[in-house]
Design a protein that fits this description.
Structural class: alpha+beta
Radius of gyration: 50 Å
Largest sheet: 3 strands, antiparallel
Number of helices: 10
């Protein structure tokens, strides 16, 4: 048996021998030596001495499948994933559609100073709470005051025999004060709930109503859009104030209140003062509406707006409220004078009730202001 060979020594000897052979052959074919050297170097890198031919022994063939293949290296560039930032809630105050519409409608109203109050009289707006009008609720057999009570009150009990017209009791959720008021019909209790003209009659008289016909003024005074049941003392406190001098104590209702004023004034082609328009605009912008364009006073045509918004043409017709269409105006017949029928006379409400004539409306036979203690146009309630 041959003696064992030291692998490292044997490898070194084999390699040296190969080198001598390569140098000898290089004298004849140097390019062959270069190729052989390249092959030897490659074999040494891959498998060491065991993979080369030593002393004429055949080189071992290495099966690549015997080694686990390395995972291929991808040459593509992977873009970093885009990480969405956490959602952030941004507090925004969207404009109320009603407030925005009211501001747009406010810009259609003429801006002028107050006309003199000279000649104003309540009777210029027709009989108090007459049913003979051409607005919603007119000619329905029930006076306007009771129409509004029926609309604004809940838990209503009607007076027997009134064909569900005369409200005897009910509950009012008063929007002006934000309080609840119990209503009981009676000479000393009816005044706890009164009917307010959202645009006061005196205010309307000084801002265009003088140019309306008597029938139009009667419509104005009985238009449900211009009427609101409210607390009696609050109604007295308001008197004939406009938005520049009075707003409801309940701040939550102020936007609706001034929007109703704008709609009514637009419907009847009334104007506003500059102070009134400013007060309405402030109220509506607090509700999220955009501020109206600066106003060019009607009396000062030389003044020009400082806004980039186009001015409203002089011929612009005021927009009407969605539910209001001015009816054709019939020939106006003045109401009968109060107490004109002298053939009917009641000394007191007991006599009225005994005759089954209660309540008596202003203008009805036998009506007298002495029988109407609360002055609401309805005697012997």
């Amino acid at each position: 048996m041959p003696a064992p060979v030291n692998s490292s020594t044997h490898c070194a000897q084999g390699t040296a021998g190969q080198g001598r052979t390569a140098r000898a052959r290089s004298r004849r074919r140097w390019h062959v030596v270069v190729a052989i050297a390249a092959i030897v170097a490659g074999v040494a890198l891959v498998g060491g001495c065991d993979d080369a031919a030593v002393d004429g022994a055949p080189a071992q063939v290495v099966d690549p499948s015997a080694f686990p293949s390395a995972a291929p290296v991808s040459t593509s560039v992977v873009a970093p994933q885009s990480v969405a930032p956490p959602a952030t809630t941004v507090a925004t105050r969207a404009a109320s559609p009603d407030a925005s519409a009211a501001v747009a409608q406010l810009d259609t109203l003429a801006v002028k100073g107050r006309a003199p109050k000279t000649g104003y009289d309540r009777d210029l707006f027709g009989q108090a709470w007459t049913d003979d009008v051409n607005v919603e609720g007119g000619h329905n057999g029930c006076d306007t005051r009771n129409d509004i009570l029926r609309r604004d009150l809940t838990a209503i009990v009607y007076k027997t025999g009134s064909n569900e017209c005369a409200v005897r009791t009910g509950t009012l959720a008063d929007p002006y004060t934000g309080t609840t008021i119990a209503f009981t019909r009676g000479q000393s209790t009816s005044s706890a709930v009164q009917i307010d003209h959202v645009v006061a009659l005196s205010d309307a008289w000084q801002k265009g109503a003088q140019q309306l016909t008597p029938a139009q003024r009667a419509d104005f005074a009985n238009d449900p859009r211009n009427l609101q049941a409210t607390d009696g003392p609050i109604n007295q406190q308001k008197s004939d104030g406009d938005a520049a001098t009075w707003l409801p104590p309940n701040k939550a209702y102020r936007c609706t209140y001034v929007a109703r004023q704008v709609a009514v004034k637009a419907a009847y082609t009334l104007w506003v003062t500059q102070a009134e328009k400013d007060a309405i605009a402030r109220t509506l912008t607090a509700c999220g509406a955009a501020a109206p364009a600066p106003t060019t006073p009607a009396a000062d045509t030389a003044q020009t707006p400082t806004t980039t918004a186009p001015p409203i043409a002089a011929t612009t017709t005021p927009a009407l409220p969605p539910t209001y269409s001015p009816p054709p105006q019939p020939a106006y017949t003045p109401p009968a004078a109060v107490g004109s029928d002298s053939s009917v006379y009641y000394p007191n409400c007991a006599a009225v009730r005994a005759a089954g004539a209660d309540p008596i409306l202003a203008g009805d036979p036998g009506y007298s202001s002495k029988l109407d203690r609360d002055g609401d146009g309805i005697a012997c309630e």
